[in-house]
Amino acid sequence: MAEQFRAFIDPDFVITDDETLRPYECDGLAMYREMPMLVVLPETVEQVQRVMRICHEHGVPVVARGAGTGLCAGAMPHKEGVVLSLAKFNRILNIDPVGRTARLQPGVRNLAISEEAAQYGLYYGPDPSSQIACTIGGNVAENSGGVHCLKYGLTVHNILSVEMITAEGDRVTVGSDGLDSCGMDLLALLTGSEGLLGVVTEVKVKLLPKPEVAQVIMAGFDSIEKAGDAVGGVISHGIIPGGLEMMDGHAIIAADDFCGAGYPRDAKALLLCEVDGTKEEVHEHIAEAEALFRKLGATSIRTSQSEEERALLWKGRKSAFPAVGRISPDYYCMDGTIPRRHLARVLLEMEKMSEEFGLRVANVFHAGDGNLHPLILFDANQPGELEATEALGGKILELCVEAGGSITGEHGVGREKLNQMCTQFAADEITLFHAVKSAFDERRLLNPGKNIPTLARCAEFGAMHVHHGELPHPELPRF
To answer: Can you give 277-342 as a three-state secondary structure string?
Structure first.
């Protein structure tokens, strides 16, 4: 098969030797690894189509890959499959400042979109913490969010159309330049589908005008519970922040050591609340939010007075994940969502779980939309700690479901959360997911073994781990 690919792709970019394959064995979640059969890096859409047709003809699995920054093992290779890297699809094809749109190849970095659009006073809304490296194709695959998704939405709310290659190698466009399209909303279905339904080769995104003014309030609290209650308090007051982020004591110190943002190091929890808009609107909402935070128990309040100060406060938050690496040999980043009203209760329950498992948990998350990112700190060199960490992570996700939330907010399911899919969804729902997968990819060659568990897996997981020996779905056979 490699020789077939070398007939139309530069042979240097058809990779088969173990040493060069090694960087592709995992994504950002290095706990799951597997070496692929080979890797190809095409340069044109026509080459992608030929790759897909050859793989479909031979029944070979295909895993599309962007920058590899994902955190759910969604881009982990298949040992008998091809990794289709879109790294060379890195051009901004067009920016329309009048229509406020940008046409992009999937390998364009998230941050590069805003950097290019800045000359027109525009930017791209979703801003994951990994935006300096993650790509728009990967953002579509995982429906990524970011610190400003509370006000400006996730990827699905900020794209107009997607060009993709089907499992059979056909080229199709889903969506349009209009605010709505006729027929079923396939664009929403594709966004967040984790490479199971097609290979994205072009994305058209919406651009937003830069706000006239933006300021950040940094509020410190002496308890996680008070900070959690303050999140709901701000929004119920009628203020919709551009971003509303929370960090606990472990994350505060690590991030402050990392970038010197001037965070209150004695605080048990910290909120970053950004308000943007016109000068008058921001001035009014900042004053209201400051007063509200004081009323709800804030022990310290600081509001940015310049763009440089605002950027520094956000730098600490966006650097929190790597910064936590300074206080622990390893950490496991979880991703679940809960209703905002349950923030305080869930965070306190997580604190109890942390003590029960004997593992520290640093919390850094999008508080405004209830998207939690607990970082479980551990040492993989200590026998049993990795297994305990995975078990604690599973318990946290099950807690999110119990609270009325979801097992993922933006990282995706991938290989990592297959078992927890069985906790969240019933057998009929999982059967429906499989039906959708089959409609797009009947031979199940696109990113197999990810996102959707088999019913047999759910029966086994439910019996062993969730329902204390009782099958969650009695109608399912035991395997």
So the answer is: ECHHHHHHHHHHHHHHHHHCCEEEEEECCCHHHHHHHHHHHHCHHHHHCCCCCEEEECCEECCHHH
